[in-house]
Design brief:
This protein is an alpha/beta fold. The chain contains four helices and six strands, in the order βββαβαβαβα. This is STAS/SEC14 domain-containing protein.
Length: 139
């Protein structure tokens, strides 16, 4: 990859990695395995900070290795993270579906609960289709 297209690491913890893509979106990569709620909160808070500091409204959520969201994680995402991150503007999320069936179900719950917010998302089976959709969106 050339330097112009190589994402740069922004933050990493046991939940996953956050990367800055040079074309103007955040990459939110989840690791496999169980998570602590505090690690998830730190991870997603840094994702919000990345979007806000760059003035970005797009993110790629790579959840293909992710284990299911816990009830506490779902509640925190719905009640706090989505509304705080959007802060009055639309956020576009291209989400790569988890391989784990139960993770897909928990993702569906989070996404249906988040539909009432300013989060607009599409689900994808692969990164190529997800990034193509993001590229078509306004900056």
């Amino acid at each position: 990859m050339s330097e112009q297209t190589t994402p740069r690491l922004y933050f990493e913890n046991p939940v996953g990695r956050l990367l800055e893509h040079p074309t103007g979106y955040a990459i939110v990569e989840y690791n496999a395995g169980t998570r602590k709620l505090s690690d998830m909160q730190a991870f997603l808070t840094h994702a919000s900070q990345l979007l806000q500091s760059r003035g970005w409204r797009k993110m790629l959520g790579d959840q293909h290795l992710m284990s299911p969201f816990t009830d506490d994680e779902r509640a925190w995402i719905k009640d706090f993270w989505v509304s705080r991150t959007a802060a009055g503007s639309t956020i576009y999320g291209a989400v790569i579906l988890p391989q784990d069936v139960f993770a897909r179900l928990s993702l569906s719950l989070v996404m249906s609960e988040a539909q009432e917010s300013a989060l607009t998302y599409r689900l994808f089976d692969n990164e190529a289709d997800a990034t193509q959709w993001l590229a078509q969106l306004p900056v």
